[in-house]
Design goal:
Order of helices and strands of chain A: EEEEEEEEEEE
Strand content of chain B: over 45%
Distance between the termini of chain A: 36 Å
Structural class of chain B: mainly beta
Oligomer: heterodimer
Shape of chain A: globular
Helix content of chain B: under 10%
Order of helices and strands of chain B: EEEEEEEEEE
Number of helices of chain B: 0
Largest sheet of chain B: 6 strands, mixed
Largest sheet of chain A: 6 strands, mixed
Helix content of chain A: under 10%
Chain lengths: 108, 116
């Protein structure tokens, strides 16, 4: 069993839909990262959170440390949101363990 | 520069040759990471530098891989006697001080290595 699991693996949506990507982990952590990887390969850090909720534009990330679960939500999705979304955790070290990613495609 | 810079962006080499990949982190960032991503696979940790501390090399897949960071800034990842399974995108990331336990990482655009 992977230490970081994401669901779904693939997700398609129509423009405007509300999207949720889930991440579950089995290790103790102090923070969790959500990353976005565009088709060209570049990776952007979206959020780093250790509790509660963070919001940036149409993106919202939540985490429940007790349940070892985090969600990334995208409101009013747009084709430019199409990317791979990766959850990553540092299990009490400075190394990140990455989920395998969720490939999102948003169609107009 | 404004971001993490990696060079070259693409490298094609023959099996058995040595290659060097370069990473210029954001100025002032003391933590530097190398990761790699094979085709269709997730990201894999390779090595971590933090300031003047000894690097964490626990992710290097074999002794053909080595990395150094000179002057606490630029880092070079060297792969000796490249094999086809070394083909991947090699990504560098940096953060201001301590790393991903409490800080965001900034990624370079990667070096696509193809070993023929």
């Amino acid at each position: 069993k992977n230490e970081v699991e994401q669901s779904p693996q693939n997700l398609t949506a129509q423009e405007g839909e509300f999207i949720t990507i889930n991440c579950s982990y089995s290790v103790g952590i102090s923070a969790l990262h959500w990353l976005q990887q565009h088709p060209g390969g570049g990776i952007v850090s979206l959020f780093m959170l250790s509790s509660g909720k963070k919001k940036h534009g149409r993106l919202i990330a939540t985490i429940n440390i007790q349940e070892k679960h985090s969600s990334l939500h995208i409101t009013a999705s747009h084709p430019r949101d199409s990317a791979v979304y990766i959850c990553a955790v540092p299990p009490n070290t400075d190394k990140l363990i990455f989920g395998t990613g969720t490939r999102l495609q948003v169609f107009p | 520069g404004a971001g993490v810079s990696q060079s070259p962006s693409n490298k094609v080499t023959e099996k058995g040759k040595d290659v060097e990949l370069r990473c210029d982190p954001i100025s002032g960032h003391t933590a530097l990471y190398w990761y790699r991503q094979s085709l269709g696979q997730g990201l894999e940790f390779l090595i971590y530098f933090q300031g003047n501390s000894a690097p964490d090399k626990s992710g290097l897949p074999s002794d053909r891989f080595s990395a150094e960071r000179t002057g606490g800034s630029v880092s070079t990842l060297t792969i000796q006697r490249t094999q086809q399974e070394d083909s991947a995108v090699y990504l560098c990331a940096s953060s201001i001080r301590t790393g991903p336990t409490n800080e965001k990482l900034f990624f370079g655009s990667g070096t696509q290595l193809s070993v023929l």
